[in-house]
């Protein structure tokens, strides 16, 4: 017969490991994981019946805690990458090629100030200084145009940071300078 202590370790450990895999909610496992560990250890030390429940509570609590620690490491790394790049700018070449009329939208250093231009077919190209994280280039076919669109963002050294293509009446393409961080 299991005691309340070992049952609690088992249940809390299982809940902790399940919640640990759910983003945002999983941080609750920072509390539940150690609690399951403590209850499981107390159950083992007191040598109460159903040691398996206590051991399962210890294992699931520890696993939940490990998953939470991994989430924190990933979150800190992502914040550092974004913080590093938010204030940085670099020279880029924004290029859109299309058949037929299309509209181009792009941002440079200020992510809140978007520039929009209508293009009558052919190529649109701009040398810009843009945010290395949030610079953007997009285009969409004008009403009635079923042609192909391609956007490309290239760094000053010739490295293509982002490229997207689409075709059809509602074709839309989007390229971001921050895509270079994902490679």
TrEMBL record:
InterPro entries: MmpS_C. It comes from the Bacteria. Keywords: Membrane, Transmembrane, Transmembrane helix. The chain crosses the membrane at residues 12-45, 52-79. This is DUF4190 domain-containing protein. It comes from Arthrobacter rhombi.
